[in-house]
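Q: what sequence does this backbone want?
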């Protein structure tokens, strides 16, 4: 029992840090700005559902999915990095990438769910935890981390109001640059991995 508890605590801490829902708050708040509370809560659920679905799938099937599709983690990193870079540019420069003239904004929940919450880092962490602990402990840890993430995103509007629109806007633009920088690193790491070269620290 003690081993189970300690394993769950460790796995939960690792996943919560990787998911980093606190970082997602200003991003999520910016993408759902002007929407009703009901819609914001809906997008929070979608974000958690998307991230959770991916993590549960990779927990059970592990690398089988990549093998079936003929993909590697490196190619996944490149694709995820490109999406992150576009999102970072949208945040930093105030671009409107997720809108079209005739359609409503792309669901913020999907973009937040992946690659923001569940990206290459989270998927890799899930794979490593499954190898070390099996299925049960990571499953419990994923569930707990998703619940915590959902609570944080659910109250993102309140957090945004507490910080104020000016502070949130500044944080969003600064985080946009950081997201873009992280995306470049992920893309470069994926390219190096594809070429079979070590990634410089």
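A:
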């Amino acid at each position: 029992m003690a081993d189970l508890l300690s394993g769950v605590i460790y796995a939960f801490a690792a996943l919560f840090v990787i998911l980093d829902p606190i970082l997602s708050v200003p991003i999520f708040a910016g993408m759902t700005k002007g929407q009703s509370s009901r819609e914001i809560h809906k997008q929070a659920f979608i974000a958690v559902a998307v991230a959770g679905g991916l993590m549960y799938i990779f927990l059970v099937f592990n690398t089988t999915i990549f093998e079936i599709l003929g993909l590697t983690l490196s190619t996944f990193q490149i694709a995820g990095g490109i999406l992150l870079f576009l999102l970072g540019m949208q945040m930093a420069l105030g671009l409107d990438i997720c809108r079209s003239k005739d359609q409503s904004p792309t669901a913020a929940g999907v973009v937040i769910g992946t690659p923001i919450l569940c990206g290459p880092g989270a998927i890799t962490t899930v794979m490593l935890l499954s190898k070390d602990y099996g299925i049960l402990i990571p499953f419990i840890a994923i569930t707990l981390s998703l619940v915590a993430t959902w609570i944080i995103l659910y109250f993102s509007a309140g957090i945004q109001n507490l910080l104020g629109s000016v502070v949130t806007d500044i944080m969003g633009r600064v985080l946009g640059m950081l997201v873009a920088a992280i995306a470049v690193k992920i893309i470069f790491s994926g390219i190096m991995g594809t070429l079979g070269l070590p990634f410089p620290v």
